[in-house]
């Protein structure tokens, strides 16, 4: 695999990641079992289908004073993936490669690459088990995020093997 | 040195490219998301009056209610010369709030206990047109009907999902309308101020007609109330008259009974005295 192709792959990863930040990751359709029609009458806004987005979720957590959780999610799902993509890009473009410190950082960050995907999968699993028949459906944001993470892993793998050009 | 600086600058440029691509991804997604709900001439907006703030006194500095309590505001929304929404009345409120759903006992009774989501929605549906307008106004309910507080006329072309907010220094200080698309009752977060909205010092014709109807209804109510009170007084008077008659009758009967008892006792006592005298003085009649 040549470096220009890998760079194109990283570019695609960046666009996919950007989409994942604003697209809904999953939608939640609340149900209250056999009481659903009644709750729909009494409190229809609570029974509306809710779309969860990454950026929106972080902002909501921050506003609701869940600052540590908001920071953790922002770090692992927004900041670290962005930094990883930047470093992969630089690794692919710089003839002398990344400085040693940065390369170590990149390796460390890669370990947490699938963390967000795992968290979303866990949330979906938990809500699926909730009583009342609440339904969770994965949305485009989840797939673009997963695709971005998987492609960036592949790009990193191919980058190590690709011959460096002057 | 210069080469080093140039290299550093290049490094930032290189790092900026992925950031630019991420931003591109965000922009593309925003574009597609907005495409999902296009706003055009066919768009139907659902709106309800969310909140209204009223000045503590009328424009002429009079209190809203004679007893010194806050006004009882209710809102009307008109579109194409028709009333498309009439909210319930919020009792004694300077800041009143309404929900898009309200269940009235009348609904339950009329539908024999069966009500659906559509029958409890208190929302106005307005189509987005380039030249159209809709009006919203607040009225203070009192015993003789409803007094106009204030209102706004808003171009329909200014409608978009969000909290439409209007402010003035007139009696209707602030009004917030929740605007959504296609009966979505989620309260929007983003607020905006529409352009071209005009404050109404007097109600438009269709609202005047509704006010007249309210006044008629109030008059009927007062008439019915008067009738009920009159009937009550009549019934009470009749009851009192009957009571007095019965009492008189009873007193008369008691009087007769006492008279009879007195006569009987008198006769018995006379007989007894006569008997005793007969025993004491035998031979004397």
Task: Describe the model.
The complex is a heterodimer of chains A (166) and B (285). Chain A is mainly alpha-helical and 166 residues long. Chain A has one domain (3-161). Chain A has helices at residues 3-22, 36-42, 54-63, 67-93, 100-110, 115-128, 140-161, and strands at 24-29, 50-53, 135-138. Chain A has a 3-stranded antiparallel sheet. The model of chain A has no long low-confidence stretch (mean pLDDT 80). The mean pLDDT of chain B is 82. Chain B is elongated and about 170 Å long. Chain B contains 4 helices and 11 strands. Among the domains of chain B are: 1-36; 44-203, Immunoglobulin-like. By secondary structure, chain B is of the alpha+beta class. Chain B is 42% helix and 25% strand. In chain B, strands 1, 4, 5, 8, 9 and 10 form a 6-stranded mixed sheet that branches. In chain B, strands 3-2-6-7-11 form a 5-stranded antiparallel sheet, with helices on one face. Chain B has helices at 2-36, 105-110, 117-120, 205-280; strands spanning 44-54, 73-79, 82-86, 95-97, 124-127, 133-142, 145-155, 162-167, 172-181, 191-192, 198-200. The N and C termini of chain B lie far apart (168 Å). Chain A binds chain B through residues 10-11, 14-23, 37, 40-45, 48, 82, 85-86, 89-90, 93-94, and chain B through 11, 14-15, 17-19, 21-30, 33, 100-101, 103, 115-117, 120-121, 184-187.
